Amino acid sequence: MHKSIETINERIRDGSARVVTAEEMPAIVSELGEEGALKEVDVVTTGTFGAMCSSGAFLNFGHSEPPIRMERIWLNDVEAYGGLAAVDTYIGATQQSDTLEDQYGGAHVLEDLVSGKSVELRATSRGTDCYPRRTITTELLLEDLNQAIMCNPRNAYQRYNAAINTTDRLLHTYMGTLLPDSGNVTYSGAGLLNPVTNDPKLRFIGSGVPIFLCGAEGMVVGEGTQHSPGGGFATLMVKGNLKEMSPDYLRAATMTGYGVTMYVGLGVPLPVVDLDVVRATAVRDEDISVDLVDYGVPSRSRPVIRSVNYAELRSGAIEINGEQVRTSSLSSFRKARQVAAELKGWIEKGRLQLALPTRPIDPTKKVHPMHERKKGPRVLDIMDRQFVSVGESEEIRAAAQKLLKGETNHLPVIADDGKLSGIVTTFDISKAVANPGKAVTVKDIMKKKVVTTTTEEAVDIAVRKLEQNNISALPVVDKDRHVIGMLTAINLGKLFGGRWLK
Amino acid sequence: MRLLVNFSKKKGTAPIIAQAVKDTGVLINVERAVIDSSEGEALIEVPDDQCKLIRSTMTRLGATVRQLEHGISVDQSECVDCGACISVCPREVFSFDADYRLVVAEDKCVLCGKCIPACPHKALTLPV
């Protein structure tokens, strides 16, 4: 049996269409069977509500008297893009206020506009013969704008990795607060309600398809940036009229230590035309697996701890190495349900009919990493290969002499097996000299917990280590923990010699 | 019942909590304590029926005692029920109900404030 989309739209028009949410679908399929569900259900609505950084809006302000060609534009002190035409701009959700930083950003401007608040527009220009005005400052309401078109380049991730932190340090990431020593797990996405998860082959999600976007009727533009359905990470580019949106489904947020983002409510209706749709929309949380990724590793290829599914994640805790670790969602399942329910209501009332994509989206595409033709500096480029070290059992006095002779402030301490076992600084030695009698050898005063780097580590990561630990040197070690160099704050000065910074 | 005990360091380093336990025989559960150079603050839990006794004993020993009625508070107009606070709380104050609405067990809260920066929507505040 096959139902045409025209049949479904006819039923929507005469009010007889059976619309269910993707959450209801698994039970319907197990009760009626696949054939029965195909016969019974006409439309399945999906929904998601979570942080979608890649969001923003095109705004057209209309012309002032005398007219201005805006080159730099701020809305409530948040800079918007000035490279469009005279009185158009794009404001990105993650752009932060010049004055309030992560406490207010592009997402807050959009939420304020949608909530009916006035927003201060400030712009500057060089002035031209056709656009003589050089500055403007005014207050605007959303209704004052000619157009306010939300256009989000990357929304509605099919699913998203779960995050954990195996380091001994609290991390603040775009995946929220990650407690040290695998103290918690965070995840995002509405699982069985997620739009693309219910249409993984992207048969019914493509250009022109009507969707629910922040309370308004929007549409899919096409594939989103970083679209990677081949690995289960499809994304969508979407648009909608900001003027019709609701603050119930558009919420500014700040991820501490990361910055501003926007929570977006998005839902896609799927026509139940054949058994393949029935099977796809019967997806359950336990069928959707994601990788649990260690965000403690500051690299593109973060280690995967294990695979987890949304049912496990939503249960409140998952097991890792025999221990129960609590989970936190960053997206709202309750709001995702509201999105799917409201979209269902629209269709039942005949407000929205379905449409097939005018352009298909490639369901096999895979994202690739950046082709870096020019590598950034690595530790080996700037480290000191000449360095002075000290043995554990040497006397403190000998260490002091080595510091003086080597004109250095840091001595890596080498154990009898030739491996790094500690570090002493001029501060440690001064302290020992000022309080004589207690300590005799280097071993008595050295710091055993040494933060190290490797030759291949990017200098940016080494610099973060220095900052986070409030230290000024890192021993460079090989895989056997033999010291092969030192990286100090002085070496970093080489970066400013013009060799790397252009 | 939970009491917030403040003691000034100027009064010396008298072991106020230990003294109160010894004098009254009431077992005190210290849930949180912060002590800096000028003053100390401890959040303690005592059985309801002995609250009065502990309060008067500690006040006599030089501490300021305030009964704590409220834990962390959630601004419902800001909260979107995401649950980012759930796993960072050391006392399992936050959870979801069957409708995935955030539920706050205020009585478990020890006012550590760890959840505040974890909330993306700035919906959480400590009582003053």
Description:
The complex is a heterodimer of chains A (502) and B (128). By secondary structure, chain A is an alpha+beta fold. Chain A contains 12 helices and 31 strands. In chain A, the strands form 9 sheets. In chain A, strands 3, 4, 7, 12, 17, 18, 19, 20 and 21 form a 9-stranded antiparallel beta sheet that branches. Chain A has a 4-stranded antiparallel beta sheet with strand order 6-5-10-11. Chain A has a 3-stranded mixed beta sheet with strand order 1-2-22, with helices on one face. In chain A, α8 (396-406) packs across α9. Chain A is globular and about 95 Å long. By secondary structure, chain B is α+β, with helices and mostly antiparallel strands. Chain B is built from 3 helices and 8 strands, in the order βαββαββββαβ. Chain B has helices at 16-24, 51-60, 115-118, and strands at 2-8, 29-35, 39-45, 64-68, 73-74, 94-96, 102-104, 124-125. In chain B, the strands form 3 sheets. In chain B, strands 2-3-1-4 form a 4-stranded antiparallel beta sheet, covered by helices on one side. In chain B, β6 (94-96) and β7 (102-104) form a beta hairpin. In chain B, α1 packs across α2. Chain B is elongated and about 50 Å long. The interface between A and B is medium-sized, with 32 and 21 residues.
